[in-house]
Amino acid sequence: MKAIWDSQLNEKLHILADAAKYDVACTSSGVDRKNGSSGTGNTTACGICHSFSADGRCISLLKILLTNECCYDCVYCVNRVSNDVPRATFSPEEICTLTMGFYRRNYIEGLFLSSAVYRNPSYTMELIYETVFRLRTVYDFRGYIHVKAIPGADPQLIRKTGFLVDRMSCNLELPTAEGLRRLAPNKPRSQLLRPMRQIQQQITETKHEVAVYRHAKPFVPAGQSTQMIVGATGESDYQIMNVSEALYGRFKMKRVFYSAYVGINEDSRLPAVGTMPPLLREHRLYQADWLMRFYGFKAAELLSENRPNFNLLLDPKCDWAVRHLETFPIEVMTADYYRLLRVPGIGVTSARRICRARRYGRLQFDDLKKMGVVLKRAMYFITCQGRVYMPFKMQESFITTNLLGLKERLPENLVRTEDTFRQLNLFDDFHLQMPVEQEDRIKVLTGQL
Amino acid sequence: MGQNKRMRILMCHNSTEGILCGVYEAFTSRYGHAYQKLAVGPYANGDLFSDIYSVKVDTEKAERVVKAIVNKISEEAWYRVHLAAEADSRDKGEIIYRFLILAFANGSRVLNAMSVPEVMGLHKLSRSVSRETQHLCGFLRFQELQNHILYARLVSRHHVGIFLAEHFQDRLPMENWVIHDVDRDEIWVHRSGREWLYIRHPDFKQDPQTMLSASEYEFTEWWKTFTESIAILERKNPKLQMQMLPKRYWKYMPEMEVHVGAHRPTT
To answer: B-contacting residues of A 19-38, CB under 8 Å?
Structure first.
């Protein structure tokens, strides 16, 4: 048999994957769905990374645009209508072929379908719906699907799509309404928030239904996420963290992603083309994001009006700890879980291990080390059965110097130019336990859990 | 008298079953835990003061041990022991044996005692195996053969085939697939709608690489195109890539093919 080589599809794939690469989310986590012995695919709660691209980011989903023929003119975007870039559009059938072919070969965990706004928002959303519907029904695909909700699309379409997919996201694009007005004239903030609110309400509604009726269909079971560009406009970290906090609190977001702005368009309103993306700043934002979601920190604890930006040299948790020495040291054997989490060098896993282990016996510093506590960082903040690891001066300056001394390998030029290069670790929400919610309690009663 | 008792080394077959049979032998012999050791075959280092006994594999005995672990300790304990038993380690038999002595005496709460060396040892081993399984759930690559069978070549440090077979049993229930552990020469075969089967030293009539389907080339090329296009070159970071996707897995991943050749030392 001779191999037929569809170079046209290859070209399309190149254009539309390239156009989708600035979308950060590539997570396949949040739903645990067994296959049930027909069709193709399942999903696992912790997600699976299938490959890593040259920039070190995880490849979990087939991340593509449906089309990059956009009718909007957002200043920061490669696909803006006034840019001269090659354009292409997938047919729903082509996307299904690629997804199924890749999935069977275990290249991917599922599909992440985004799109430029083609003709108008509703028309684009309709196309996305058609693709997903085809994939779920004709191909009986049960893997992970993440789609974009197109702002301004008919709410009915978003609703229909939501019942077929695992995650939906609607990008906030820029942290402030002002920045949005300046750089994305076609996307007023109110229009971006509307689908977010709709999805959130729908999720809450169907959650109750699913809990009570066994066969009710879940709506966007893996929740919704969003993304903001960092460093294209002049907002401070404090503003960004406050926006995230509001998104997690009021919109019940599963994730907020931050994307360091990569200079691609020549425009007086943007940083110059060729400026390095502010990767270290992005990294710090992610660290702080984790602190808010899993460590019980508030944005206002980490930053304030007077200190609006993160210390690039020290991670946010160490930074917080050395400024709050009055709360330390804490005793490992007696401190509660949330107090343990506040110690630099103790993470969610090691805090949990400590809580498990100390019920069984007394812990020594050596045991802590074996459990994964980073002692060179934690030693200044804890006591173990009343003892410190080694004597030191309980002074902010002394501890800071020592913490800076060990540390993550920062780039050499950092001290000179402040914001420049460091790659983040784009790890994902692995092994996270969901809190028990009211719905789960009902599910236990109805025997679904 | 007891001081003159000779050490016994129970040598078990290198498999979960084998180790469990060793455990059965050790517990039922009433020779005393202090005078017995579990070694994993084929060879054990004996010395002047110990005798080597080899333990025969007996499925029934192994099953009884599994039942005992589940009932008297917990499901989680069995899960951990199973993972550890498939590890690539010379001491795994002894680690499992020592853990079980402690666990049978103390019940399920023993798993919490992270600071106890016996428990820590088991956790470490099982974590390492489970991590590699998770990696390979993502990094294993199937190729489609002419008869639509999906064929995957597996290279792994630990013996993780069975866990992968379980994973793909649920993921691709309607496909015919084969996972081939290349170094150990074993396969896990799955037929559409059935349970998977394990075969040692399979006899391939023809090299699967010569039987690839017509569309296989297309899909690998598309996949390479995709993985290249999805990278943001301004953020290029090969070190991070290597850290997340260790080189030992590259061999059968189509998107890393070019790199394998490029980095291979010339001999």
So the answer is: 20-22, 34-35, 37-38
pLDDT tens by residue, A247-301: 999 999 999 999 988 888 888 888 888 788 888 899 999 999 999 999 999 999 9
Size (chain A), residues: 449
Residue type (1 letter), A118: Y
Separation CA A115–CA A128 (nearest Å)? 8
Q: A57-107: per-residue pLDDT in tens?
A: 999 999 999 999 999 988 888 888 988 999 999 999 999 999 999 999 999
When pLDDT is cut at 50, 70 and 90, the band that residue A12 belongs to is very high
Query: pLDDT tens digits, residue range B27-63?
Result: 999 899 999 999 997 776 777 778 889 999 999 999 9
Give the whole-angstrom CA distance, residue A363 versus residue A124. 59
Handedness of CA A342, A344, A349, A351 (dihedral sign): negative
On whether the CB atoms of residues A65 and A16 are closer than 8 A, the answer is yes
Chain-chain contact of A102 with B225 (C-beta, under 8 angstroms) = no
Q: Side chain identity at A214, as an amino acid letter?
A: R
Beta strands in chain B (DSSP E): 7-12, 36-40, 50-54, 142-144, 150-154, 177-181, 186-190, 197-200
User: Which residue reads 């993470």 in tokens?
Assistant: A347
Out of A59-63, A370-374, A424-428, least confident range: A424-428
Residue A148 to residue A2: CA distance in whole angstroms = 38
DSSP string, A363-384: --HHHHHHTT--HHHHTTTEEB
SS3 B179: strand
Residue of B nearest to A10 (CA): B222
Residue A427 has pLDDT above 50, yes or no: no
How many CB pairs (< 8 A) connect A and B?
182
A385 touches chain B (CB under 8 A): no
- For the segment A308-320, what is each residue's pLDDT rounded down to a tens digit? 999 888 889 999 9
Closest CA relative to residue A148, chosen from A251, A248, A24, A246: A24
Do you find a cis peptide bond into A155, omega within 30 degrees of 0?
A: no
**Where do the domains of chain A lie?**
7-312, 316-405
Q: Which CATH architecture fits A7-312?
A: Alpha-Beta Barrel (3.20)
- DSSP for A113-171 reads EE----SSHHHHHHHHHHHHHHHHHTS-B-SEEEEEPPTTS-HHHHHHHHTT-SEEE--
* Tens of pLDDT, residues A313-369: 888 999 999 889 999 999 999 999 999 999 999 999 999 999 988 888 889 999 999
Q: Which has the closest alpha carbon to B81: B39, B123, B22?
A: B123
Q: Is the pLDDT of residue B17 over 80?
A: yes
Q: Is A62 on the interface with B (CB under 8 A)?
A: yes
Closest A-chain CA to B220: A102
Residue numbers of A between 340 and 369 with CB closer than 8 Å to B:
353, 356-357, 359-361, 363-364, 367
Nearest by CB to residue A38, choosing from B174, B216, B253, is B174
Task: Supply φ then ψ for residue B59, to 5 degrees.
Answer: -55, -40
Average pLDDT score over residue span B6-15: 92
Spatial separation of the C-alpha atoms in residues A199 and B80, rounded to whole Å: 40
